[in-house]
Write a structure and sequence with these properties.
The chain is an all-alpha fold. The protein is 75% helix and 0% strand.
């Protein structure tokens, strides 16, 4: 039933996928006579609940997703205990991020960042998510935490341009001209790299915001122009360009 559910999910037949997985779980949940599925091993139950949680999350059923993930963690407490499950903690954190419950998200991502069983990719993702969550909470202390975590992500992979762009974005949140200049230098290095048009557009847009905050409206307009040329769907860059144009005209 697990594999059948996977086939349905891949085909976009989400309801059929959920039905198959629920049948597979019926012996675990004590539903007598619901299916002829054989008893599940612990790792099989985990895989099914993780798949269900991920599907619920994609559908916007965040509470249902969290319930499935929590059931895995509860089972992990049974003998023999599983002390770390970073994949599940990462999924829980991502779900909390989607409902902007940043404090619970931080608690989950911190578990991943210190888990011995977490892969390098998981830990780097956790640092990125921690940076975003702390930035979402705002305030000086959280911005410092955001900066610290994104710096860790960048150190783990200096060629992760999403991390570099986030690093610049967090620097700009402090409203310090010195930090904005640092952000501009980071963004210049990003746009000079071999990156795709959408990432380059985001970087140029952020650079434009930095120049606009510095009252350098000509340079800001130039960056916003680059941003919309690279990605015509970048609505934020269009809006920022209008703001910069108005500010430029007022300062003539």
């Amino acid at each position: 039933y697990y594999l059948l559910g996977r086939v349905y999910a891949t085909a976009g037949k989400n309801e059929l996928a959920l039905q198959a997985w629920k049948k597979a779980l019926s012996p675990v949940e004590g539903q007598v006579g619901v299916s002829d599925a054989p008893p599940l091993a612990r790792d099989q139950e985990r895989e099914i609940r993780l798949a269900m949680g991920d599907l619920y999350r994609r559908q916007g059923g965040f509470e249902l997703a969290l319930k499935q993930y929590q059931l895995i963690l509860d089972r992990n407490q049974q003998a023999p205990r599983v002390l770390e499950d970073p994949e599940v903690d990462l999924a829980i954190g991502r779900t909390y991020m989607l409902i902007r419950d940043y404090r619970n998200a931080i608690a989950s991502f911190e578990k991943v960042s210190t888990a011995r069983q977490a892969s390098t990719e998981m830990r780097r993702d956790a640092f990125m998510q921690l940076a975003q969550a702390h930035a979402g909470l705002g305030g000086r202390d959280h911005l410092e935490q955001a900066r610290s975590n994104v710096n860790k992500a960048v150190r783990m992979d200096p060629l992760d341009y999403d991390a570099r762009i986030m690093q610049a974005s967090i620097l700009m949140e402090t409203d310090s001209m010195v930090d904005r200049e640092k952000a501009i230098e980071i963004l210049k290095s990003v746009v000079e790299s071999d990156i795709d048009a959408r990432r380059a557009s985001r970087a140029h847009n952020l650079m434009g915001v930095a120049y606009m905050k510095n009252s350098e409206f000509n340079r800001a307009l130039q960056e916003f122009d680059y941003a919309v040329q690279l990605d015509p769907t970048n609505n934020e860059a269009y809006q920022n360009r209008r703001v910069a144009q108005n500010a430029y005209q007022k300062n003539l």
